[in-house]
TrEMBL record:
Residues 424-443 are annotated as: Disordered. It holds the Pfam family TPR_2. This is peptidylprolyl isomerase. Its EC number is 5.2.1.8. The gene is LOC107065384.
Length: 460
């Protein structure tokens, strides 16, 4: 087979000749651990190293500079089971210095390499194997899409080897939920390069989770696979590249997106968009004069919208914080006080919540909802006091009961003078050893005193 020039500069620096074809269409990926056998020789055939001679395969992390550049480049093009000869010019091997004593300076080397296997690259945030990637086609360039980038992809989803999704789709990275793109695909795409095609294995927590997906007939807690091709992407706008008016414009776009998602009850996406709007407005030094007023108005409305999203998703601490941020901008904002009061009430802090609802009435005395919530707070406080009173009453009764039990235990431990010490009369205990009288037999626990052993008390 004719050798192929696979050097990046196409200058003959790395020539690859396939000796044995591999299987499948998958390729190892950057970051994955690859296991190979190899034999290295000089151009005159002198062998300088061989894993086969040691009968010990060699493992390395592809693309991490663990090996010479020719290996990182060449092995990335090889399939599982493939055997190939790489002819490596010095600049892709050991360069001008060589690797004494076996490899001289400026040496061109031959490596016969067999790719045995590789582990898939772990793209999950926790590095627990919940999102893994195997490259099929390497991408181009060095840049990756980021959150907010407009991506154009083709994806094919499989569950139990059955295709459930196969389509082209374009969306902004981070907003894939609206297009039924699972979180695992979005996170993986942040590591893709343009033109890359890879297989992704995604566990349920980054796929359809415990809910499953009725549209695709995916059951709860299902692990899925995707073949994803990143056809192209447009880089996301970054705030540090914008002037003041541009930041306000981008903040408006993000805020409007958030409002649309809120109306669709996609609260997670709405929160994300509102946070993005706040990022564009975070450095107020960029805003002067009329821009300052506009940015403050946008900040206020965004914090208020964010607080409402948090209320809808029962994130009450976050809601409280968003309302507090809004009140720093507008200390007399009725909505901010009301929503913060709701958050405090949900956090079982009715005594603090009632203060916020009272602030609402100071601003707008006719606010019926605030009056209603004040009554709710008072009822909650009353019930808590009654519960507390009952709790303490039960506690004191419990202590009293324990004290009674201790006293009863002490009494039980005292000797029974009628039974335990003196016992019942037996013949040997009666004075003179006489037999028991009829009365004594009928009343064994009554002590008959007769010191002289006479019948003085016999008929008593």
């Amino acid at each position: 087979m004719v050798a192929e020039d696979i050097s990046p500069a196409k200058n003959g620096g790395i020539l690859k000749e396939i000796i044995k074809e591999g299987v499948g269409d998958e390729l190892p990926v950057v970051g994955g651990s690859v296991t190979v056998h190899y034999t290295g020789t000089l151009l005159d055939g002198t062998k300088f190293d061989s894993s086969r001679d040691r009968n010990q395969p060699f493992k390395f992390n592809l693309g991490m500079s663990d090996v010479i550049a020719a290996w990182d480049i060449g092995v990335a093009t090889m399939k599982r089971g493939e055997v190939a000869m790489l002819t490596c010019a010095p600049e892709y091997a050991y360069g001008k210095t060589g690797s004494p004593p076996k490899i001289p300076p400026n040496a061109t080397l031959n490596f016969e390499i067999e790719v045995i296997d590789w582990t898939e690259e772990d793209l999950s945030p926790e590095k627990d194997g919940s999102i893994t990637r195997v490259q099929i086609t390497p991408g181009k360039d060095h840049s990756n899409p980021r959150d907010g980038s407009l991506v154009n992809i083709h994806l094919t989803g499989k569950y139990n080897d059955e295709v459930f999704d196969d389509r082209d789709v374009q969306f902004c990275l981070g907003e894939g939920e609206k297009d039924d793109i699972v979180e695992g695909v979005e996170k993986a795409l942040e590591s893709f390069k343009s033109g890359e095609k890879s297989k992704l294995k995604i566990k349920s927590k980054y796929a359809f989770k415990s809910e499953g997906n009725t549209k695709f007939n995916i059951p709860p807690n299902a692990n899925v696979e995707y073949i994803v091709e990143l056809k192209s992407f447009e880089k996301a706008v970054r705030s540090w590249n914008l002037n003041g008016s541009q930041k306000i414009e981008q903040a408006k776009i993000s805020k409007d997106k958030g409002t649309n998602y809120f109306k669709e009850e996609r609260y997670k996406l709405a929160i994300k968009m509102y946070k993005k709007a706040l990022d564009f407005l975070s450095y107020d030094k960029e805003f002067e004069n009329e821009l300052k007023s506009e940015s403050q108005s946008l900040l206020l409305s965004t914090h208020l919208n964010l607080s409402l999203c948090y209320l809808k998703t029962d994130q009450n601490i976050e809601c409280k914080d968003a309302c507090t941020a809004a009140l720093k901008i507008d200390p007399l904002n009725e909505k901010a006080y009301f929503r913060r009061g709701q958050a405090y009430l949900a956090l079982t802090m009715p005594d603090v919540a009632i203060q916020d609802f009272e602030h609402v009435l100071e601003i707008e005395p006719k606010n019926v909802a605030a009056v209603k919530h004040i009554h709710i707070c008072k009822n909650v406080i009353k019930k808590e006091k009654e519960k507390e009173k009952k709790l303490y009453a039960n506690m004191f009764e419990k202590f009293a009961q324990q004290d009674r039990q201790k006293e009863e235990e002490k009494l039980r431990q005292q000797p029974d003078v009628m039974r335990g010490v003196l016992g019942e009369w037996g013949q040997e205990e009666r004075p003179g050893g006489r037999d028991a009288t009829a009365f004594e037999k009928e009343n064994p626990n009554i002590l008959m005193l007769n010191a002289n052993g006479t019948d003085e008390f016999q008929n008593m």
